[in-house]
Design brief:
Number of domains: 2
Strand order of the largest sheet: 1-2
Distance between the termini: 66 Å
Number of helices: 4
Order of helices and strands: HEHHHE
Low-confidence stretches: 26-31
Mean pLDDT: 80
Strand content: under 5%
Helix content: 40-55%
Structural class: mainly alpha
Length: 133
């Protein structure tokens, strides 16, 4: 290969790599920009948060009527929201700015226990150890 072809191939690889990095970088920013303002959101909007139903959303609205939230951590004062649940809500909660989530947020399945694999099951023709062998 000539030097000009090698340079052209390297340039093409660099451009493709750069474009893919930009594409994946934008997706991560979109996810982190999805927020719900817990001081202004409706009950229906609060129910978009992962693992939050209408009952807990109503409790959040009742709590903020008494005193608006100053910090997102104050959400743990609401009955039904503990440290574990708050940790999963934290990326989606804010106390200022607009609400930018418009659909139910689903947590990734990686936090759930994996289904048992087929390889862990015994074959049907397996003879138990210690039974006549």
């Amino acid at each position: 290969m000539t030097a000009s072809r090698v340079r052209a191939a390297c340039l093409a690889v660099l451009i493709c790599t750069g474009l893919s990095a930009l594409a994946f970088g934008d997706e991560g920013e979109k996810d982190s920009a999805k927020k719900i303002n817990i001081n202004t959101a409706t009950t229906a909007e609060l129910a978009y948060l992962p693992r939050i139903g209408t009952k807990v959303a109503e409790r959040i609205v009742e709590r903020r009527k008494e005193k608006p939230f100053a910090k997102p951590e104050e959400l743990m004062e609401v009955k039904g929201i503990g440290e574990k649940l708050y940790a999963s809500l934290k990326p989606y909660v804010s106390v200022s700015g607009p609400t930018t989530i418009h659909a139910k947020v689903r947590l990734s399945t990686s936090s759930r226990r994996p289904a048992p694999s087929a390889s862990s099951e015994k074959p049907s023709n397996a003879v138990p150890v210690g039974k006549g062998r």
